[in-house]
Design goal:
heterodimer, A: 344 residues, mainly alpha, globular, B: two-stranded antiparallel ribbon
Chain lengths: 344, 391
């Protein structure tokens, strides 16, 4: 098809000037876009003092993590990145026999990275300890989101099974927990984990602030994961249970071998969506005093030489979140199509 | 002699027994956990009691209904609850309007409008609310001119870094006499509604147009205000005064603080992006044949949207809309980050003053839960109404 100038003109007329009100809308909006656009462009290119970002870049990314140990964060990212690339290649070539090893590698990567980031003891030469209390910046944001969603997964499965259970005690307790958590804001759960948790534990157990925040995130996220998984469980046809029972599997094995694999497959897109919102919600730890990406940005605006640079810093933070969340939601949409959820 | 049947299951494999034992063990573990927590709590020498609520709060709350430091804690909490409800109600109203508008814009035939709406939705949904709130509060509302150079809005309002001040209405000297006429207007309109309903029942068509009802509802109070001798409601125009010590003060009018405005704007912008997606999905779920049929009958674009598509889309829209309203209410707790004194922020101060962590925490939980339940109850009534209309 040839795109001549005439085609283009018809296209423009049809899409922008078809009726009198469309003409009005188009002209008004063009005016607004022109004014706002030039203002924004002038700010971005000329007036904004972006050196506040470049000067504080390392702090924004890794926070108070010791400068000499930053390589450990980079190695952790490389591990995840390599695994992701390998997974993609294996999936593309459909080498089903290596799937199991990939899963094992992913599961193993979690403790490996944790050890890498935390180190061993104070006086260890290879990996000196970095206390989780000083974790901050984008790194803390990522850690909170990833561990929050991973840890909430088993808890979520148990809660979902509990809520669908025939046994009244399990059903009641799970339902009460899920509805309670979903009915209150995340900030109150975080607050509970920061202030109440230490009161409920014996005095000799001391948890760091990051661990406490993680507990809160996990407790909160588990309720939402449970609801997602419950949706997946409901989507597995009843015939699957019955067929598995007929084959002589007991109820636990029916769940583990037949129902859960199908249910979890169906909820992957929903879980990605939940991960995105959890990732955004990690910013709330600022309110309980932790320094994640947003917390560091806020702290920087308080310094004398950077005072009043709120716009630059918050725009940068928003950009980082936007890039992460937007790419994840695009990936999840692709995944939804690839898994054929709803088309089976 | 006991005869063992061949097919009898052994007792440890009996499902009923397993189920009972599992539940009993689970309850036992739960009770033990609660006792353990309670004993740890006791070990710290803490007591559990709500008596402190009657004590003097000794902190000030500048936001919302009147509050003095000598007032008791429970009144402070009440102020916080009212502030939360205020933000939540206004936020729900405005985000519904903006969200519906954006959602429909995303389906518009106008390319520019569609693209702008899409950019808006994607940008807002993919950045954290707290970042947006910080940006709005620190980079916009705090940057507004100081009170000396306040922006004067048409109709005498002021916008400064102390917030927005608008003219208010105050009751005049003849207000109570006028109330009689207002009551008459409401009763009269109610009677007309009843009459109209009866005519429809008997003849199948209304005796007069629905818009006609507005006439007595508006006309009687206006005429009544003259009958009452004027001065029933007066404008309370805000003005900037210099007090004795030379400090500029805003007087009169209704003042909305910058914190309130930043929180409300942030919540409305954030939630409306989600509502836009809900609305878009709802409109798209209406079969295309409906639109085409309506167009072939000669309906205009506006009529198609208002009379054919929206009523059907509404049924799909309402349930997810309820959860967006609940999210907005819960998200209003972020007020504490920008210093708006809502339920959560007031509780935090109460907690620091009294040291009653568990009690205050239970109050926070109970308040949010009852707010959530109230909203879902009201919206479910609304939902039921629309679902019954369905075929």
């Amino acid at each position: 098809m040839k795109a001549t100038a005439r085609d283009l003109a018809t296209k423009i007329r049809r899409n922008l000037f078809s009726t009198w009100y469309n003409v009005v809308i188009t002209l008004t909006l063009s005016g607004v876009v022109a004014v706002v656009g030039t203002k924004a462009l002038r700010w971005i290119l000329i007036r904004a003092q972006w050196q506040v970002i470049t000067t504080n870049f390392r702090v924004l990314m890794t926070g108070r993590y010791p400068k000499d140990e930053v390589w450990r964060i980079i190695v952790s990212i490389l591990i995840v990145f390599t695994l992701a690339v390998i997974t993609r290649i294996v999936r593309k070539q459909k080498k089903t026999d290596v799937y199991r090893w990939i899963t094992v590698a992913w599961i193993l990567s979690l403790p490996v990275i944790t050890i890498l980031l935390r180190g061993f003891g104070e006086d260890n030469n290879v990996l000196p300890g970095v206390k989780s209390e000083i974790w901050s910046g984008l790194m803390l944001t990522l850690v909170l989101a990833v561990i929050g969603i991973t840890a909430s997964f088993p808890l979520g499965i148990l809660l979902a099974l509990g809520r669908r259970s025939k046994l009244p005690v399990f059903r009641l307790v799970s339902t009460a927990y899920i509805e309670l958590i979903r009915g209150v804001p995340l900030i109150s759960v975080l607050f509970m984990s920061q202030l109440l948790l230490p009161l409920f534990l014996p005095p000799q157990i001391r948890l760091g602030t990051v661990v406490r925040a993680l507990t809160g995130m996990t407790m909160f996220s588990a309720a939402y994961t449970a609801e997602n998984i419950r949706g997946g469980l409901a989507s597995v046809p009843k015939g699957q249970y019955e067929a598995a029972r007929v084959l002589g599997l007991n109820s636990a094995l029916v769940m583990i071998l037949v129902v859960l694999p199908q249910a979890l497959r169906a909820v992957i897109p929903a879980l990605v969506g939940q991960f995105i919102s959890l990732f955004k919600d990690t910013t709330l730890v600022v309110i309980v005093g932790l320094l994640d990406l947003l917390g560091i940005a806020k702290a920087v605006t308080g310094q004398v030489q950077f005072i009043g640079l709120h716009q630059e810093l918050y725009c940068f933070v928003a950009l980082v979140f936007f890039i992460c969340c937007y790419s994840m939601s695009r990936a999840s949409r692709r995944l939804e199509i690839a898994l054929g959820v709803g088309n089976r | 002699m006991i005869e063992i049947k061949q097919d009898q299951t052994r007792f440890w494999r009996d499902e009923r027994l397993i189920n009972t034992v599992a539940q009993v063990v689970f309850i036992f573990i739960l009770v033990a956990l609660v006792f353990w927590i309670f004993s740890n709590y006791r070990q710290r020498g803490l007591i559990f009691s709500f008596r402190f609520l009657a004590e003097e709060a000794s902190f000030d709350i500048s936001e919302g209904i009147e509050f003095h430091p000598t007032d008791p804690y429970y009144r402070a909490f009440l102020v916080g609850v009212i502030n939360t409800v205020r933000v939540a109600v206004l936020g729900i109203v405005f985000s519904t309007i903006l969200g519906t508008f954006t959602g429909i814009s995303r389906l518009s035939g106008n390319w520019l409008l569609r693209k702008l709406a899409t950019i808006y939705v994607e940008l807002i949904r993919n950045t954290p609310l707290l970042v947006q709130l910080f940006f709005l509060y620190f980079a916009i509302f705090m940057r507004l001119p100081r009170i000396q150079h306040a922006i004067i809005l048409p109709g005498s309002g002021f916008l400064s870094n102390r917030g927005l001040t608008l003219p208010g209405l105050v009751t005049g000297s003849n207000f109570s006499a006028w109330l009689f006429w207002v009551a008459m207007a409401i009763i009269g309109t109610g009677f007309l509604v009843f009459l109209r309903g009866r005519t429809i029942k008997t003849t199948g068509r209304p005796a007069f147009n629905f818009g006609f009802l507005l006439l007595p509802l508006i006309l009687i109070p206006i005429l009544g205000s003259f009958a009452a001798g004027g001065s029933v409601l007066n404008w309370d125009l805000p003005s900037i005064h210099r007090s004795g010590s030379g400090i500029l003060k805003l007087e009169g009018g209704i003042n909305f603080s910058s914190e309130f405005l930043a929180l409300l704007t942030g919540l409305v912008i954030y939630t409306s992006a989600y509502i836009a997606e809900v609305v878009r999905a709802g409109v798209q779920a209406v079969p295309k044949g409906q639109t085409e049929a309506a167009r072939s009958q000669g309906f205009t674009q506006g009529q198609i949207l208002g009379l054919i598509v929206m009523p059907q889309a509404l049924r799909i829209i309402i349930p997810p809309l309820i959860s967006q309203y609940l999210n907005l209410t819960k998200n209003s707790s972020l007020a504490i980050a920008i210093g708006f004194l809502d339920l959560y922020a007031v509780s935090q101060t109460m907690l620091n003053q009294s040291g009653r962590v568990v009690e205050v925490f239970l109050m926070i939980m109970a308040s949010y839960l009852s707010l959530s339940l109230t909203i879902s109850y009201l919206m479910n009534l609304f939902n039921k109404h629309f679902q019954i209309v369905e075929r």
